[in-house]
Amino acid sequence: MVPLACRRQSQRMRLSASVLTAMASSFAVCRLHMRGRVVLVRSLQKADTFLQRSIGTDVAAAQAEAPPRDGSDEKDGCKSLHALQVERQEQAERSVLINCQSRTNEKKFLKYLSNHGDIKKYFFYESYGLYAVVEFAKRENVASLLEGAVIPSVSHESTVPFKSRLLSLRNLSLVDLSNQQSGLQCQPQTTIPINEFIQRLSKEESIDQQITSLTEAYQLTEENSRLRFLVCSLLKDIAAAYFPECTIKPFGSSVNGFGKLGCDLDMFLDLDGISGRNVKMPKSGLSLEYQMKRANSERAVTQSILSVIGECVDQFGPGCVGVQKILNARCPLVRFAHQPSGFQCDLTANNRVAMKSTELLYLYGQLDPRVRSLVFTVRCWARAHGVTSSIPGAWISNFSLTVMVLFFLQKRSIPIIPTLDHLRDLAGPADKSVIEGNDCTFVSDFSKIQLKSNTETLEQLLCEFFEFYATFPFSRMSLNIRKGKEQNKPEVAPLHIQNPFETSLNVSKNVNATQLDRFVALCQESSWLLQQRETNTPRGGANMTTAWGLATLLLPSQVAGIKSRKKRRREPASERIKGLLESLKNKNQPKTG
Ligand code: CTP
Ligand code: MG
C-alpha cells in the first residue's frame, strides 16, 4: 500500500489547474493510505479533464469592480462533515435572500447593498422569479440592511409582521428600464433533462468519462449547497422564537456528498444545547436548575415541538407553503415547500441517528472518488427506470440504493471501502457515540483509514454492480455494511438491508416484491447491455450522437415484464439495440399539440 492522500474528486467546477496542483500536494498531508500511485495519477488526470472542461461553463465572470462571485476559491479538501457544517452555517447567518426584479441592474444593486458593509459572495438564480443570495462580511452588515428594510404596504390584505432575511427588492431605480436583456447570469438549480443528457453522454469517449460527466452534471453545486444552508438558517430564525439556542442542520443527501440537484432538503432541529443531554451536574455547592414541563416520552416532546414549530412555519414563515405535520410517522416530521428556493423540505427533531448515518455516508464518499461516481450513476439509472421515485411508496429509496452500492464496494475481492465494524475499531475516545442505546461509534480522522489497492475502473465496477445484484440471493440474505457480509434474513421482507446503526431495523422495509423483481430484471438487462460490443463502444462517427455505453443504460428499458426476461435474453443483440435506439428517437420527437 502506498501512503497517499485524500483524493476526493473535487465537486468544485471552477477550480483552476493551480488548485489541482495544490490538491495534489495536499494529498501528501492528509496521509490516507490508498490504492496504487498509478491509479492516483490516472484519477488526477481524469479530474483535470473534468475541471478544465467545467471552467467557465456555468458561471460568468463578475463585473470588474464587483466582489467575487461565489465559489471561485472553494476548496473543501477533506474537511470533516462537522467542520463543513459549522463553516456553512456561519456563512448562512451572514447571508440574505433577495427577490429581485427580472431586469435588476447588477452594479447598482451591489452598490446599494454595499452601503451596509462588504459583500463577500453573491449569486443569482431563478425559481418562480429572480433571486439573489448575498453573503456579507459581518453579521452587523445584515442587521444594518434589515434596519433599513421597510414593511410592505398592502391595501387590501394584511401581513404577518414577522421579519426575516427573505427580502424583496422594490426600488425601481435599480431596475434597468431599457429594453435590453439583463446581463445577469443565473446559477442553475436543477439538472438538465435526461434526454438532453443522454445525447451529451454519447459524445464522451469512454464509459469512465461518461460516469464522471454524469457525476459532474448531477451533483449539488456550491451555490445550491449554500442555498440549502441559508434555508436552514432562515428556518432557525423561526424556531429560535421558542428555542433561541437551537440550530437547524441539513442532513441526508443535502450534505452527505450524494445529493443530486433538486433533491429534498432534510433538516434536523437540534436542541441538544438545551436538552439536558451531556450536562455535567456540579459536584457540590449551590446551583439553580430550570423548571421544565415534563412529558411521557422523548417522542411526545419531539411531536409537540414539531407541532408548534410546524404551526409557526405555516402561519408566519415567509415563502413556506403546503405545510403538513406528519407527527405519527416513525420519525415525526413537518413537510413543506420553500418556494423561494424551490426546495421540498422535511423538518425533523431528535433524529440524531440519521445525522450519524449522514456522517458515515459522507466519510465513505470521501474515501475514494469512485464511491460517489458509482452512487450517482446508480441513482440516476434507477430514477430513469422508475426504480426510485420522489413520491413515497414501495420503491427502493435512494438511501437504500446508496447502502447497496457501499455493500457492493465492500464485497469486491479487494474491498474498495472498509466495513463499518472496521471504522468503529479505528475510532478514538472522542468518536464514541451511543444514541438511544445504538452504537454509532466510528472513526472521524480520515488519516487513520488505510485503503487497499483496488484498481478497478468505473466501467468495470458499474458492470460488476449490475452483475452482483442480478444474481444476489435476495430471498435468503440480508445486506449488512457493518460486517461487509450478507447474512441470513432476520425477518420476512423482499429486500432486507440492515440499518447500519439501528441494527434491528430494515432500511428497505417498504420495498415490495414487484419493485425488487423489477430492480433485479433491470440489473440483468443493464449488465447484459454493458457486455455487448454494440453498446459498450462509442458509435456514430465524428460527432458521435448515437447513444452508447451509459447513455444506452438510461434509455427506456425493454423490461416489460419480468416473466419474459428469459425469452428476451435470447433475442439477437442487434434487435434489442435497435429497439432501444428506436425508443430514444421517439422520445426525442418534438411534441405536437
Ligand atoms: N435515513 C435513515 N434510515 C432510513 C431512511 C433515511 O437513517 N430508513 C437517513 C439517512 O441518513 C438519509 C436521511 O435519513 O440520508 C434522509 O433520508 P432521505 O431523504 O430518504 O434520503 P436521502 O439520502 O436524503 O436521499 P434523497 O436524495 O432521495 O432525499
Ligand atoms: Mg433526502
UniProtKB/TrEMBL annotation:
| Annotated segments matching region Disordered | 561-593
Q: Where is the RL domain?
A: 81-149
Q: Which domain of life is it from?
A: Eukaryota
One of its Pfam families is RL
- Please state every residue range assigned to the domain named Poly(A) RNA polymerase mitochondrial-like central palm: 207-366
The biological process GO terms on file are: RNA 3'-end processing
* Recorded GO MF terms: poly(A) RNA polymerase activity
Q: Name one GO cellular component term.
A: mitochondrion
Q: What is this protein called?
A: Mitochondrial poly(A) polymerase
The scientific name of the source species is: Amphiprion percula (Orange clownfish)
